[in-house]
Amino acid sequence: MPDDNTKKWQDHPVLIAICSGAAALIFAQTVIFPTMTASLQNEVSSARSQMQEVATLRDQLKKATEDTAKAKLELKAAQLNNVFSVGNPYPIGLDKLRIGDGLDAIPS
User: Fold this and answer.
1) What's the chain's average pLDDT?
2) Can you spell out the DSSP letters for 15-45?
3) What b/e readout covers 77-95, taking b as 16+ CB neighbours within 10 angstroms?
4) What is the C-alpha end-to-end distance of the chain, expressed in Å?
5) How far is CA 26 from CA 21, 38, 56, 72, in A?
6) With contact defined as beta carbons under 8 Å apart, do 92 and 83 qualify?
7) Is residue 2 scored above 70 in pLDDT?
8) Which of 84, 101, 100 lies closest to 92, judged by CA?
9) CA separation for the pair 25, 11 (Å, rounded)
10) How much of the chain is helix, strand and coil, in % rounded to 5?
11) Per-residue pLDDT tens for 13-47?
12) Mean per-residue pLDDT for 87-102?
């Protein structure tokens, strides 16, 4: 009859710790690491698409800025060239109101 004080080798605390650590590593390698890798790959692809979107928006902003600057120059040139009409000392649009007109001529 075996003695109750004798322990089996499977019950040794060091062996239990080693087996638990090995089981944890196997679980991490088969479940946790692939899940984390997939999550990180999704983040990377999302960041890449956002970078492409930012680059597209940056190009659109650059083009819009250039178009705005060009339009401002064209507007300034048009305003300077056509401020006065030929033979009229008043700027365009002010030919109806002359110096010396009364206050009742302003609303009309």
Assistant:
1) 83
2) HHHHHHHHHHHHHIIIIIHHHHHHHHHHHHH
3) eeeeeeeeeeeeeeeeeee
4) 126
5) 9, 18, 45, 68
6) yes
7) no
8) 84
9) 21
10) 70, 0, 30
11) 888 888 899 888 888 888 888 888 888 899 999 99
12) 73
Query: How many residues are recorded in the chain?
Result: 108
pLDDT of residue 14: 86
State pTM to two decimals: 0.46
Distance CA 89, CA 86 (A): 8
The reported pLDDT for the residue numbered 68 is 97
Which two tokens mark 34?
């692939």
Query: Which amino acid makes up residue 23?
Result: A
Q: What is the largest CA-CA distance in the chain?
A: 134
Tokens of 81: 């060239």
CB-CB contact of 93 with 100 (8 Å): no
